[in-house]
Amino acid sequence: MERITAARGTTLRCKGWRQEALLRMLENVLENGENQKELTVYAALAKAARNWDSYHAIVDTLQNLEEDETLVIQSGKPIGIMRTHKYAPIVVMANCNMVGKWATSDNFYRYQEQGLLVWGGLTAAAWQYIGSQGVIQGTYEIFQSIARMHFDGELAGRFILTAGLGGMGGAQPLAGTMAGAAILCVEVSEARIDKRIEVGYLQRKTNNLDEALAWIEEAVSKREALSVGLLGNAADIFPELARRGVQPDIVTDQTSAHDLLYGYIPSGYSNEEAASVRESDPDRLRADAGASIAREVRAMLEFQRRGAVVFDNGNNIRTQAVEYGVPDAFDIVVFTEGFLRPLFARAIGPFRWVALSGDVQDIRKIDDYILEQFKDNEIAVNWIELANKHVPVEGLPARIGWFGHGDRTKLALAVNDMVAKGILSGPVAFSRDHLDAGSMAHPNIMTENMKDGSDAIADWPLLNAMLNCSSMADLVAIHSGGGGYSGYMTSAGVTLVADGTEDAALRLKTTLDNDTGLGVLRYADAGYEESLDEVGRKGIRRIDTAQFKQ
Ligand code: NAD
């Protein structure tokens, strides 16, 4: 079969831009994905559709769907077409949601084997992945926050150690060099290292630890930014560095440690051996992966004891380590609680937009608009200037930008207007990561140690999805964890199409205001000062039940 890429240009294959936009977003996640043949987008098993029959059925349905119809998708499989109305979503989907006690990784693998579900990751099955760029600003903002908290505001002359150069982890080297640091990324697959070099996210590669260290030391001493991909296993390299007394300034890991069967490759295994043992003796593979993670996390704890800033980058590595004999793994902080919570409390999070025509100039024009109209927004201006210079185009031209309540709406409405006036060469799709203020419950990542203890309450993402449907979004998705994330998270995603129409303006305004509005309220409800301040400043209509105390 021919390799799938997203359609470009302005010729419609569907009955309207809303359907066409979602079709291009689906094609785009596959174009940017890690293993198209398997429909795998990233994170080892996060898929764009249940299987190829489902993919083709989705494509066919979107091409024939009327504007007053809604396509219903269950874990990547299209189930039916419902007559709704033109203000209803074009697509609603629920991916990988299992009932409480049954939401285990064993059940996930069994259901997956039976072809009954797939895991959608956060943005894979919801067709919102935009390549490694989707997490790059998040990773960059983490590094910036660490710089402010620990290194007098800058990372020049600092050494970051990490692992994993996959679909998401591949953003780390570029985020590291954009922040000015020397970053060493350990990766077990040479193909992944080559891919990051090819797309311009990584600078150098070697399979020799001494050579890698020499490059890093030189860059650190000259205070130059540098990224190095080291072919090796993190379970070997991290402990070896600790043994040698090499001391990084910042340490993390973004391998697919959440999944012991399909994600993390144990020490001593090649990718091929892992695939073969997965078939012949899955319990052994799991045990070996768990033991390797334990070794790696012990080294991370050692770096922390010696003074490094160490953090969990959202891959459940600490949870696995505890399971496999490292009781103090949670001495390592998770990135959200450690560095990003004050932003999320104001619903400032990973908003993104995609130029559906494929014209990179559309993204540049939106960049220019932001630089002109958001002059006082330091985060946005700093990021857009950097991204414009450093972030390469992957798939349909896209941009991530951390914006909050009101600003997302302002930007989207302006873009819709630019589409209407023909300033942009085609419509633009807006979405965001599911890992956003009001749309994710994950007690070991997003909502760890919430002020009011509400870490595991999944009402918020469910409310978010219902609210976004009521607000006329174009696509709304509810996801839960798969693999090692089973039982660990629930999230919701949303996509909107700015096609230049008045209806689009109405959808954009209503949905974006309500999406971030709920995000602010979620954190206000948990007692965060920043959120209460935002409620006041932005006029969000919060109901304070304390005022009704009898
Ligand atoms: P991926 O499966 O595409 O890539 C993982 C990479 O790790 C692969 O290239 C693999 O070869 C490599 N790897 C596996 N075991 C290794 C080992 N022992 N040593 C060195 N390299 C090894 O996954 P991804 O999409 O990059 O995501 C990575 C993890 O980050 C996942 O757990 C994912 O859920 C999580 N994640 C976090 C965030 C966040 O917001 N922080 C966002 C997205 C994903």
TrEMBL record:
One MF term in the entry's GO annotations: urocanate hydratase activity
Positions with a binding annotation for NAD(+): 167-169, 187, 192, 233-234, 254-258, 264-265, 483
EC number(s) on file: 4.2.1.49
GO cellular component, one term: cytoplasm
Chief place of localization: cytoplasm
Pathway the protein acts in: Amino-acid degradation; L-histidine degradation into L-glutamate; N-formimidoyl-L-glutamate from L-histidine: step 2/3
Known catalytic reactions: 4-imidazolone-5-propanoate = trans-urocanate + H2O
InterPro entries on file: Urocanase (IPR055351), Urocanase-like (IPR023637), Urocanase_C (IPR035401), Urocanase_central_sf (IPR038364), Urocanase_N (IPR035400), Urocanase_Rossmann-like (IPR035085), Urocanase_sf (IPR036190)
NCBIfam families to which the protein is assigned, alphabetical: hutU (TIGR01228), PRK05414.1 (NF003820)
Protein name per Swiss-Prot or TrEMBL: Urocanate hydratase
Species in which this protein is naturally found: Paenibacillus paeoniae
Name of encoding gene: hutU
